[in-house]
Each structure stands twice: as C-alpha cells, then as structure tokens.
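Structure ticket #2291
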Amino acid sequence: MAGFASATGVHLSYASDYLPGDKGWAGLDQQSRLTKFLGPWQGSPYRLVLGVPVIPEVDGRAVATLAAGAAGSYDPQFTTLARSLVSYGAGNAVLRLGWEFNEPWEPWAVANAADAAHFAGYFRRIVAAMRAVPGTSFQFDWNPAPGPGPIDLALAYPGDASVDLIGLDIYDETWSSPETPSVAWAGNDTGPNGLEWMATFAAAHHKAMSIPEWGVTIRSDGHGLGDDPAFVFRVAAWAASHNVAFVSYFDIDVSDGRHNLLDGDLFESRAEFTLLFGSSGATG
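Resolution: structure written out below.
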C-alpha cells in the first residue's frame, strides 16, 4: 500500500483484501487462522474492505449451502467472525458478503430464483448476527458483477435494512466485437447489469455505491484491452459524477489477468491514474 501510494501520489483511505475461503469454517471462525490475514492490517490507517466467502470450501468441496445459511445454521460462525474483526481493530470494515454472486464459478453462485431467495435470506442472517456484536460499525456491500446472468439481480437483494452500499466490479475486457476500448466500456456502462443499472437500482433504494474492484487488463487470451488510459479516465469520471463512496483499484496480477500498474506494462494507464487520483484520495 505504501509503495503504491508513493508511486502514484494517491492518498489511500481504503484497503481491499479477502478472507480465506479454502479453509472451511475454521478459516473464518478461528482467530488463530485469521491472524495471517488480519494481523498485518492491525493498527494501519486504512479502512478495510473485505471479501467474505459465505460458502467456505475444503479441498474444493463446499461445507455449507445457501439454503442452510438462510435458515440460520451459520449464524454462530459469523458472530465469531465479527468478534475477531473487532479484536483486530476492523470493527468498521466494509464487508462484501458473497461478492460477485451472479458469477457461476463462485461457490455461492446464484443460478435460479430459489438460489436468489436463499442468498438474500442468508445475507440478512449474516448482517443481523454481525451487527449484534458490540463494537461493530460494519458496512455491508451487496456486490454483483456486470453482465448478463441467469436471474434478475433484484431477486437476490436482501432488502434496504441489510445493505449499506451497492457495488459493482468492472474490468477493461470484452468478448464482444470489435474488441475496442469503447466497446468494452459500453459493456461495463450500459450493458446488462452494468454501471447505469447499478446507478438506477441504488437510487431507487437510496443507497450509495462502490466499485470494489476495477482495473485495466492484460489477458493471455487477448480479451483485455491492455494499456488503456481511456478506461481509467472513464472510471474516474463516472465515479465523480455519481454517488460513489469509494473505488478500489485491483493492483495485482492474477491467473486470469494482469492489472498491476507498477510493473511497467501499463505505463500510460498509470500516468492517467496518477493525474486523476493523485490528489483526490478517491481510491483505495
């Protein structure tokens, strides 16, 4: 975080991370397991934004179900998690419960109306359990991904009382033709479940928005738009003209895409990022 801030001139307020989803419930409700993930942030000046896996796995096999979660079976685990977060000084974290739930590769994927109802009910149970723990002031981010999907996302909405922010993750990539920056942006902006959908939905529910993950993208299959400063400009302009609480650049290279602004291959995007965010403190 300090290196990124120094290299880009950005004042950082939020820090994004993820809780472990591959250790079963022990990864979430055993404080000793959480030390690796939360210990390094303890005492930092940043407000944590945490991806929370609501269906943990062990050896690739799910140890929970959305239906059981909606019935309250895992309330104790999330009560314990809330207490652990408080103990690490993260009682005010922004929690992305079951982020990108409309993507088929997530263990908590919502594939039909029944799944959507269970996801919404499970989300409400988690929020109630965690808010009941003393010393907490969490914000809960309902965070789908853009693009067409099997359901109307509204079916998975937990209700206004359980949601503080509505978030959307966007990356500079496209599978439409032609594969140009403008086509990629149109998919993120006005395409199905895109930014304009989020703005309309959030306004109807009187919620602020977030962009918890975003990034320019180099992909080995060629579907990323690469060094694309126009994408950086469009994200910054969109966030500035809408009720967006925070944006968080995904500054890491992962198996399905390279996003690291500091590795030398995204020089123009980095320069644009520095120009637009360098004195605003708008990103994390």
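Closing remark: The longest helix spans residues 113-131.
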